[in-house]
Amino acid sequence: MSKIIDVINSLENLLSLKPATIEAVENIEIELALPLAEEYKEYLLKYGAIMADDVELTGVAKSKNRDVVQVTQREWAANSKIKHNLYVVENVGIEGIIIWQDSLGKIYESSPNSFAKQIANSLAEYLETK
Description:
The protein is of the alpha+beta class. The chain is built from five helices and seven strands.
């Protein structure tokens, strides 16, 4: 197994949706007009989206609060300082903190009306620090 799958499988009280299809992942990339990181695609194809203790990642979901396309587009509109080469992997739900990922897999954090700053080299590394 890959690192991201191992890390997610180790999360307490893990709940996942159904795995995304390759077509659904490709549609996300088309709708957002940016490539997803390989690790995020792997996560989507295995879980679709997840919730666990202290973690609720975006993904392929019907919920407007968990669907990566809807959440990303909403957060892009809310914060003009965020470049559109990032997509939302988690809305922390505390003080407007948003966790983003770029196509290389690096993880960033932003607060309302602030630029995103890098906080981890991968989604797996970010989850391990939570």
